[in-house]
Amino acid sequence: RLAWLPLNEFRHDPNRSRDYLVKGHWALYVDNYLEGFHIPFIHAALTQAIDYDNYSYELYDHLNLQLAPAKPGDDHFDLQKDSPDYGRDIAAYYYWAFPNTMFNFYPWGLSVNVVRPLAPDLTRVSFICYVWNEARLGQGAGGALDRVEREDEVVVELVQKGVQSRFYDRGRYSPLREIGTHHFHRLLAASLKR
Questions:
Q1: b/e map 54-73, b = 16+ CB within 10 Å
Q2: What's residue 122's pLDDT?
Q3: The pLDDT of residue 23
C-alpha cells in the first residue's frame, strides 16, 4: 500500500522523538488509539485537518489501518498513480500492529509509537520520528504530535480511573467507530488463551 514511499530517504530525528509516561494500562492506550469516537471531542486541531465523516478502518490478520482523508485544502500525500489511494487526499495512514506498535505515516514522514507496559497502571509510549520532508512539518494531521499525545493521555488516564470504579460496566462495540478496538480485543483474548 505504501510501497511508493521512499523509506530509504526517511531520517531518524532524535529531537522530535520522545517518551511519554501515561498513568494507565497499556491496553487502554491501545484501545484509545484504535477507536475513533473521541477524535472530534478531544482533538480539535486534528479534527480541523481530517475529514472525520470519511475516516475508515481496514482489518488484516494482526494489523489494522485507520485511513484519514484530509479536509479540502489541508495537507495530504501527493500520491503516485500506482497507489491504491490515488485520486484521494489522504492526510495520514495510521497502522497498528498487534500488540503494541503503531506506524503513523504523514506527508512529512513517520512516527513509530511503541507502547510498553511498566505496571498495571503505568505505560511508557515511545514516539520515534523519521522525517522525510521537513518543509511539511507542523502541517496537517501530523502537525501537532505532542499536543495530540497529551490530549490522549488525559483520556486514557480518566478511563483508567473509570474502569476501577465499582460503577464500571462494559458496553457494546460501535460497529462504525470501534472496529479496530474489537479486532484488538479478539486478538488479545486469543493470545491470552494460549
A1: ebebeeeeeebbbbbbbbee
A2: 98
A3: 98
**For 149, what's the count of Cα atoms within 13 Å in the CB-facing half-sphere?**
22
DSSP line for 175-191? TTT-HHHHHHHHHHHHH
CA–CA distance, 146 with 19 (Å, rounded to integer)? 10
d(CA 27, CA 71): 30
What is the β-pairing status of strands 101-106 and 90-97? antiparallel
- Whether residue 194 contacts residue 108, with contact meaning beta carbons closer than 8 Å, is answered with no
Residue 174 has what pLDDT? 81
Take residue 9 and report the three cell numbers written for it: 530517504
SS3 call for 80: coil
Residues of the chain with pLDDT under 50: none
Give the global pTM.
0.94
Quick check: bond before 99 cis, omega within 30? yes
Helix axes 26-34, 145-163, angle to 10 degrees: 120
Q: Is 119 within 8 Å of 104 (Cβ atoms)?
A: no
* CA gap 52, 177 in Å, rounded: 11
H-helix or E-strand containing 47? helix 44-49
The C-alpha angle with vertex 111 and arms to 106 and 115, in degrees rounded to 5, equals: 140
